[in-house]
């Protein structure tokens, strides 16, 4: 193992002088919160791969360093304009937050501060790119935990000032939405579903910074629902789930359960729009858990015998809710002509998009509606520096929000409708807010008239199809 005790970019210079190639080891998910490395000489690396281990400015004219600290992961990466990932590093705080039962912002801030320089050094050294060769530095500035965002922004501005590079402020959700364009040939416009621990929204991506919002969560996000149910089930005390996050533990346990044993109320079943709601579903699950604990005489921290069945029911209901709201959005987009008739894409990203059960559900929906489902690899669905660097590349190519002066740059923990120049995804959204409201109102009126005219017929048909498992496929 190599020591990383150097500060600043001295580690990078030493790597280049000694012609060392680093190969990064990341522990199995949930097995630890540190990343490890080994190294080999450039000569042996070239012999193994048959090509150079680092890239010159001539071969990659646009290079962006991306830095991500919006929540509990410290990530950094260097990406070129072709989408090639030259170097990356990630420090996860999951092990620490599992012990505390959730993310505590001051602890997350301290861990970001302790690890950000180390992580950026690792990404730069792995890329073989000099800081002077960078075209720009991109950093998440919103939304997220304010204490965490501040660490990333402060460190980035120091680098910008030191190396005189342009700065690109990144909207976290915009980065998630555009990640699919890094891995697949997705063209604008496309429908994007972002599902994570802090967000849930449906939007039409019409350009790098041009998003038309169709619906969003009215209360909490699906990842938050999974985490809270897992915490109430005390899955951290389960032998198979002790090292997993709440969402991962619930997905794992749900594979062993029978979701038919519990029926949870489907949220917004009669709401004629594309919004989401998960708080009522989670409260219903909490009542079931509390009732079962009382029946079995269990204390807090003990696991009910039907935990797997409850996990399966929660996962199924969340997936069905997402299925129905996304289906409604697809029908609306097809009716209004927002998506191309051929080669239309449904892009699904965010941490919850790594849930394989939900992916299967959305694959069924995509095939039924003629869309192509595009999900980034699971490692790119969760927070990482790669998506920030790629968003920086997209903005650099389009010359959107590339700042040569960082005066007045600030982070935002929540998204506000009024934003200043270059601050991200909501710049175009504010210009279209009234247009969006009119379109949503038209959609709401359309579905209200349709529901009133065919209420009885629809109810009977839906009930009959549900009994035959035709309307909602067996996921």
Structure report:
By secondary structure, the protein is of the alpha/beta class. 45% of the residues lie in helices and 16% in strands. It is built from 17 helices and twelve strands.
How does the SSE layout of this entry go?
Blueprint: H1 10-17, E1 20-25, E2 36-41, H2 42-49, E3 63-68, E4 73-80, E5 85-92, H3 94-100, H4 105-127, E6 136-142, H5 146-163, E7 167-171, H6 172-178, H7 180-183, E8 190-195, E9 200-207, E10 210-216, H8 222-232, H9 246-254, H10 279-296, H11 307-336, E11 345-349, H12 356-369, E12 372-374, H13 378-381, H14 385-398, H15 426-431, H16 433-453, H17 455-467
Radius of gyration: 23 Å
Mean pLDDT: 82
Structural class, from secondary structure content? Answer: alpha/beta
- What percentage of residues falls in helices of 4 or more residues? 40-55%
- What is the subunit organization of this protein? single chain
SSE string, helices as H and strands as E = HEEHEEEHHEHEHHEEEHHHHEHEHHHHH
What order do the strands of the largest sheet run in, or round the barrel if closed?
Answer: 5-4-3-6-7
Tell me the strand percentage band. 15-25%
Strand count: 12
Q: List the total number of helices.
A: 17
Measured between the Cα atoms of the first and last residue, the distance is: 45 Å
The shape, in one word, is globular
The main sheet comes to: 5 strands, mixed
Low-confidence stretches: 1-60, 416-434, 460-475
């Amino acid at each position: 193992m190599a020591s990383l005790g150097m500060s600043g970019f001295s580690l990078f210079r030493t790597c280049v002088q000694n012609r060392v190639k680093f190969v990064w080891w990341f522990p199995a998910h949930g097995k630890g919160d540190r990343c490890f490395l080994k190294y080999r000489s450039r000569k042996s690396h070239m012999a193994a791969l048959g090509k150079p281990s680092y890239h010159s400015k001539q071969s990659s004219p646009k290079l962006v360093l991306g830095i991500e600290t919006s929540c509990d992961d410290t990530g950094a990466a260097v990406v070129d304009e072709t989408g090639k990932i030259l170097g990356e590093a990630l420090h996860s705080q999951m092990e620490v937050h599992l012990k505390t039962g959730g993310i505590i912002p001051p602890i997350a801030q301290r861990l970001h501060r302790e690890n950000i320089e180390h992580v950026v050094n690792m990404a730069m050294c792995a890329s073989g790119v000099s800081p002077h060769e960078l075209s720009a530095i991109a950093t998440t500035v919103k939304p997220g935990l304010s204490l965490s965002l501040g660490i990333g922004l402060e460190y980035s501005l120091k680098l910008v000032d030191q190396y005189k590079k342009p700065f690109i402020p990144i909207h976290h959700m915009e980065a998630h939405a555009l990640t699919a364009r890094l891995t697949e040939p997705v063209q604008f416009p496309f429908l994007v579903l972002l599902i994570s621990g802090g967000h849930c929204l449906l939007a039409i991506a019409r350009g790098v910074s041009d998003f038309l919002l169709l619906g969003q969560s009215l209360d909490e996000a699906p990842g938050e629902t999974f985490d809270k149910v897992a915490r109430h089930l005390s899955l951290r005390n389960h032998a198979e789930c002790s090292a997993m996050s709440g969402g991962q533990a619930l997905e794992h346990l749900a594979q062993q359960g029978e979701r038919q044993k519990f029926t949870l109320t489907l949220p917004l079943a009669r709401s004629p729009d594309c919004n989401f709601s998960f708080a009522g579903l989670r409260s219903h699950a909490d009542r079931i858990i509390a009732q079962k604990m009382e029946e079995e005489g269990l204390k807090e921290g003990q696991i009910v015998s039907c935990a797997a069945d409850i996990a399966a029911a929660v996962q199924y209901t969340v997936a069905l809710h997402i299925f129905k709201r996304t289906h409604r959005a697809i029908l609306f987009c097809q009716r209004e002509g927002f998506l191309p008739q051929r080669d239309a894409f449904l892009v699904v990203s965010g941490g919850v998009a790594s849930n394989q059960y939900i992916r299967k559900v959305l694959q069924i929906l995509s095939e039924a509606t003629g869309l192509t489902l595009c999900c980034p690899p699971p490692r790119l669905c969760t927070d990482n520096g790669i998506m920030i660097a790629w968003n920086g590349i997209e903005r650099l190519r389009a010359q959107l929000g590339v700042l040569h002066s960082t005066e007045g740059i600030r982070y935002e923990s929540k998204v506000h409708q009024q934003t200043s120049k270059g601050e991200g995804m909501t710049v175009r959204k504010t210009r279209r807010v009234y247009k969006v409201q009119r379109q949503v109102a038209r959609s709401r009126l359309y579905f209200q008239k349709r529901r009133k005219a065919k209420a009885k017929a629809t109810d009977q048909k839906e009930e009959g199809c549900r009994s035959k498992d035709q309307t909602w496929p067996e996921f």
